[in-house]
């Protein structure tokens, strides 16, 4: 499972992933190319982070 998130929604994204997977999430920053082409999963902002489970 992977969730993209902006700065505003990173805490929400982490909470959602933990709730759904029951695992500790891995948070990484997107590279510049990915930032430009990826929107936050929770709003219309550009994503800054990707949160994933193993
Ligand atoms: Zn957002």
From TrEMBL:
Superkingdom as given in the UniProt entry: Bacteria
One protein family per Pfam: YyzF
Name of the protein: CxxH/CxxC protein
Annotated source species: Ureibacillus endophyticus
């Amino acid at each position: 499972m992977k969730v993209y998130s902006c700065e505003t929604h990173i805490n929400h994204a982490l909470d959602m992933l933990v709730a759904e997977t029951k695992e500790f999430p891995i948070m990484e920053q997107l590279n510049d190319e990915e930032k430009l082409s990826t929107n936050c999963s929770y709003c219309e902002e550009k994503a800054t982070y990707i949160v994933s489970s193993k």
